[in-house]
Amino acid sequence: MDPGSALRSARDDGAVSEIAENSDRQSKGSLTVVGLGPGEAHWLTPAAQAAIEAATDLVGYDPYLARIPAREGQTRHGSDNRVEIERAGHALRLASAGRTVAVVSGGDPGVFAMAAAVFEALEAGNPAWRDIAITVEPGITAMLAAAARTGAPLGGDFCAISLSDNLKPWEVITTRLKAALAADFVICLYNPISKARPWQLGEALALAATQRSPETPVIFARAVGRPDEALRILPLTEAVEAAGTADMATLVMIGASTTRLIAREGQRPYVYTPRSVTKSPCVTSQGRT
Amino acid sequence: MDPGSALRSARDDGAVSEIAENSDRQSKGSLTVVGLGPGEAHWLTPAAQAAIEAATDLVGYDPYLARIPAREGQTRHGSDNRVEIERAGHALRLASAGRTVAVVSGGDPGVFAMAAAVFEALEAGNPAWRDIAITVEPGITAMLAAAARTGAPLGGDFCAISLSDNLKPWEVITTRLKAALAADFVICLYNPISKARPWQLGEALALAATQRSPETPVIFARAVGRPDEALRILPLTEAVEAAGTADMATLVMIGASTTRLIAREGQRPYVYTPRSVTKSPCVTSQGRT
């Protein structure tokens, strides 16, 4: 009987307590944090696909697991969205017991997703876990997919900020937003809004409107690559008003002062940020404040 | 004879002048800017692979074209690294003449690569080009691959800055670096150094050393995913000294104040940035300046 067979039908942490942890430091267990990319399988890399196929156990938020076809002999450990560290610990315990574990994550696992949670759980957890072979398989992160769909808005320097204040004070977020606005970065906002955080995106966009031109293109890219994909390009003043229409599946991108539109007849304009910069961002910012 | 057959063996812009531009506004030409990802094919998405296979013409910097297996009936238009706008115009002319063109780019085409150049050429060029169906296929960009290989250094807010001052003044770059340091972003430096720009990376790292702890982890990730991959994790003080060892194939990542190492016996430590932030970046920055 192989060491992990008791887990074949496990779906919660309770079942894992059956495993004798660290019973074999030479166990062949491994853990791969896999980026599924946004949307459909055509943005899933062959390396990520191979990691999923090789896994004995898949661990992840239920909607991500639902994107992976069932496979005989492979156990799924689904969980809610709010338990990243517990999920990471569960995956490490499975790997420590000799299982071949894939922790699945939307987009890229290193960008506001499961990879950091796995290393946090590793650092705080059983020292024997450090012998587990841990791999991270990158994926197409939401801002790259949103940028590709709309043109080339990330053609210049840019930053990515999670608007969730669950793990950091709102003051830290606004400090970073102000710095990014003053330095004229294109700004990608992850986790822009949720039922529990209804006002943060509106405040962030209003802050942007104090620094950047009212015509600055703002992209609301929802569920890119999925059947319910919805893209909107709004001038900043309208984006402030429309903040409440975003949700957790939306990537919001605020253009830099140089970000431009190319009009097209009967179609959405392209958005792009030229690679060249001629003005100092400090001068721009001071000129508007 | 199909409209593009004269181009089958064309390799430079000279031959393209043979094409009657805009002879058919209903031509079925198309242009896809394709991200090859870093390194080997296991990080190439199926969508990017399909775009490459469907193309009649591949346009790109020679080393990127060299990564694509030859295909009968497919013409390659290779060029030097320094001619992005000319290359983009060439690709648009081919598409306008009815060809199915793939412009290939390393990593993600939207991040300091060919997508912005294509839209710049489109905006400045023949108005008929706006009828061309243009698609961007995203790819794994270098910072995601470098992050995946080393742990989860992008677990918190981050920015990406091109250190090339070919298209923007050095003053703009240092303004952005200072803002990113003060706001405690993890900082990804693209195009860190070249023969023509030998001192910029050293200056950027020295600037970082005035703001961040000497022990801040700095990643030099060279040619990730290729046979000559080389990864180094250095404390900031040593990274300043080692700047000259980077090259154009290197992605340099400067940790935030919260970025940490997890030691492993006999192996490179993992690098990760916890998702939680407790201190204000302003306070941190003021405390060190």
UniProtKB/TrEMBL annotation, chains A, B:
<keyword id="KW-0489">Methyltransferase</keyword>
<keyword id="KW-0808">Transferase</keyword>
<protein>
    <submittedName>
        <fullName>Precorrin-3B C17-methyltransferase</fullName>
    </submittedName>
</protein>
<dbReference type="InterPro" id="IPR051810">
    <property type="entry name" value="Precorrin_MeTrfase"/>
</dbReference>
<keyword id="KW-0949">S-adenosyl-L-methionine</keyword>
<keyword id="KW-0169">Cobalamin biosynthesis</keyword>
<dbReference type="GO" id="GO:0008168">
    <property type="term" value="F:methyltransferase activity"/>
</dbReference>
<dbReference type="InterPro" id="IPR006363">
    <property type="entry name" value="Cbl_synth_CobJ/CibH_dom"/>
</dbReference>
<feature type="region of interest" description="Disordered">
    <location>
        <begin position="1"/>
        <end position="24"/>
    </location>
</feature>
<dbReference type="Pfam" id="PF00590">
    <property type="entry name" value="TP_methylase"/>
</dbReference>
<dbReference type="GO" id="GO:0009236">
    <property type="term" value="P:cobalamin biosynthetic process"/>
</dbReference>
<feature type="domain" description="Tetrapyrrole methylase">
    <location>
        <begin position="31"/>
        <end position="239"/>
    </location>
</feature>
<dbReference type="InterPro" id="IPR014776">
    <property type="entry name" value="4pyrrole_Mease_sub2"/>
</dbReference>
<comment type="pathway">
    <text>Cofactor biosynthesis; adenosylcobalamin biosynthesis.</text>
</comment>
<dbReference type="GO" id="GO:0032259">
    <property type="term" value="P:methylation"/>
</dbReference>
<dbReference type="InterPro" id="IPR035996">
    <property type="entry name" value="4pyrrol_Methylase_sf"/>
</dbReference>
<dbReference type="InterPro" id="IPR014777">
    <property type="entry name" value="4pyrrole_Mease_sub1"/>
</dbReference>
<dbReference type="InterPro" id="IPR000878">
    <property type="entry name" value="4pyrrol_Mease"/>
</dbReference>
